[in-house]
């Protein structure tokens, strides 16, 4: 009679162990990231860092406005408005359709919990005169485009990042937070705004998916080539992945002040990370930013996370419609949504891995 009891106890232990193991495998990586990527606050007692921070604090852009070079600036967009979250979407000049999709989905949010949200698009100049005329028309219609005076190309993305920071500190100094993101990203503005409102740290906010010990690209034939003489260190400092990250206005000012000392040959997200580090600002990790990963859709999951990358246009429409509609998710629904997102994302990765392997085998067989 004792044996069945023991068996039942063992069975319960086995079930609980497997449930625990399932959660460790599913969420363990995120928990480890949250722990190990929590950088220690930088010490800024050295004279140079203190001088950078003081220059940023006293920065006055009005005298410099005449020397700024923007093909399209829309400077009045931000004037005399209290902006809680300024969203700057780095976009390619030719991608007008994608910008329209964002305008009709998550970029259409102008108010989050009673606070003003403003979404703008940052571009470089197109090589085509026809495309430039289309951008002029688009800018006139929507009043949400900032265009630099450089040609937009893979090699000028760091210039675009610097231009975005320069525009922010010059024409939108009252914006409390700035979100930089890419045009293929879904952004959960309500959840992100709620998180930012809960922060007790009001300055030195630089938050995203932190990249640790990234290595500079030393291949001369690569588009992202960084010469040793421009960046001699073996590793980059910790920085937030460039698909989406948030910085407070004071961090934007510090990045602007120190920017001239940092080589523009490094990738744009690394550029911001180096500037922030030189100014004594530590990146803060949050696994609710997806980084470059695409997160498989679940309504309650997308209400909780901040971003999902590599979004197709039809996905953006569908996912935004479902996410923005309906009520809030309960704790249990959010938990189920996160589990569902994780499992489906792993399955999609496994499918993609198998497809890539099959393609490689076919190519090998053809050779």
UniProtKB/TrEMBL annotation:
Gene Ontology MF term list: hexosyltransferase activity
EC class name: transferase
Pathway(s) per entry: Protein modification; protein glycosylation
Similarity comment: family membership: Belongs to the glycosyltransferase 31 family.
Organism: Columba livia (Rock dove)
Localization: Golgi apparatus membrane
InterPro entries documented for this protein: Glyco_trans_31
GO BP terms: lipid metabolic process; protein O-linked glycosylation
Originating gene: B3GALT4
Chief localization: Golgi
Membrane topology value: Single-pass type II membrane protein
Ranges annotated as spanning the membrane: 12-32
Name the record gives this protein: Hexosyltransferase
GO cellular component annotations of the record: Golgi membrane
Pfam families referenced in this protein's UniProt entry, alphabetically: Galactosyl_T
């Amino acid at each position: 009679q004792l044996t069945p009891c023991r068996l039942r106890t063992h069975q319960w232990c086995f079930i609980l162990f497997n449930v625990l193991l399932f959660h460790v495998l599913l969420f363990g990586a995120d928990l480890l990231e949250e722990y190990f990527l929590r950088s220690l606050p930088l010490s800024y007692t050295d004279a140079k860092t203190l001088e950078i921070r003081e220059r940023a604090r006293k920065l006055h852009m009005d005298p410099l406005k005449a020397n700024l070079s923007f093909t399209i600036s829309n400077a009045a967009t931000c004037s005399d408005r209290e902006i809680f979250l300024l969203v700057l979407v780095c976009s390619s000049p030719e991608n007008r359709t994608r910008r329209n999709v964002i305008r009709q989905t998550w970029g259409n949010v102008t108010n989050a919990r009673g606070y003003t949200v403003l979404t703008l698009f940052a571009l470089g100049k197109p090589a085509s005169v026809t495309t430039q005329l289309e951008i002029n028309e688009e800018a006139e219609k929507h009043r949400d485009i900032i265009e630099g005076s450089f040609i937009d190309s893979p090699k000028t993305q760091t210039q675009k990042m610097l231009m975005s920071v320069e525009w922010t500190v010059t024409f939108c100094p009252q914006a409390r937070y700035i979100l930089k993101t890419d045009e293929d990203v879904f952004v959960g503005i309500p959840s992100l705004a709620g998180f930012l409102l809960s922060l007790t740290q009001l300055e030195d906010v630089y938050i995203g998916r932190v990249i640790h010990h990234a290595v500079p690209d030393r291949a001369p034939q690569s588009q992202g080539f960084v010469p040793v003489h421009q960046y001699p260190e073996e590793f980059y400092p910790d920085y937030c992945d460039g698909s989406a990250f948030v910085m407070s206005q004071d961090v934007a000012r510090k990045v602007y002040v120190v920017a001239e000392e940092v080589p523009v040959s490094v990738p744009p997200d690394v550029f911001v990370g180096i500037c922030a580090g030189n100014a004594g600002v530590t990146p803060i990790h949050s696994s609710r930013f997806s980084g470059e990963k695409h997160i498989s859709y679940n309504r309650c999951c997308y209400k909780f996370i901040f971003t999902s990358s590599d979004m197709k246009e039809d996905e953006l429409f569908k996912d935004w419609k479902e996410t923005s509609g309906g009520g809030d998710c309960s704790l249990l629904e959010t938990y189920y949504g996160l589990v569902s997102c994780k499992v489906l994302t792993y399955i999609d990765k496994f499918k993609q891995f198998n497809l890539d392997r099959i393609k490689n085998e076919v190519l090998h067989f053809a050779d």
